[in-house]
Design a protein that fits this description.
This protein is mostly helical and about 140 residues long. Helix content is about 80%, strand content about 0%.
């Protein structure tokens, strides 16, 4: 989080006063998969890729209209935009708790700076992995 700490802490504080604890995140909405990886939420990125590929396989098997695929993608994007900040908050506090439990207090800040932050490479890599798997599935489907 580093330089955006104040921004996110403010969002989380405002969201905490709401019954749903949610706030909107435009980056998560428009760049869902890349945003999750960029924010180092790798398990969720893998889940996202799995859901997108599962929908691709379902569309190939059942042959339904492309508009259903578009609606599914839009639904996932909306979900990311709606709960992105909440998911990021949970991950951040989980990392803090893990570091505090594992290290002496003199090492907390340096460890959190190393583990926290963002990864542009991961954000791009997630899209590349998804596109390669999408291409592979499309090629396999053509052979069938």
């Amino acid at each position: 989080m580093n330089k955006n700490y104040e921004k996110y802490q403010s969002l989380w504080d405002k969201a905490a006063s709401r019954p749903t604890k949610q706030s909107w995140n435009w980056a998560a909405f428009f760049l869902s998969l890349g945003w999750l990886s960029y924010r180092k939420m790798y398990a969720l990125s893998a889940l996202w890729i799995g859901l997108l590929l599962l929908e691709l396989v379902a569309s190939m098997v059942f042959g339904y209209s492309e508009r259903y695929s578009n609606a599914f993608g839009l639904g996932l994007a909306f979900a990311a935009g709606q709960v992105g900040n909440l998911l990021y908050e949970r991950q951040a506090y989980k990392q803090v708790d893990q570091v505090k439990a594992a290290l002496p207090s003199s090492h907390w800040v340096s460890s959190l700076r190393t583990q926290g932050g963002v990864s542009w490479a991961a954000g791009v890599a997630a899209w590349v992995i998804y596109l390669l798997l999408w291409l592979l599935l499309s090629l396999v489907a053509q052979k069938l």
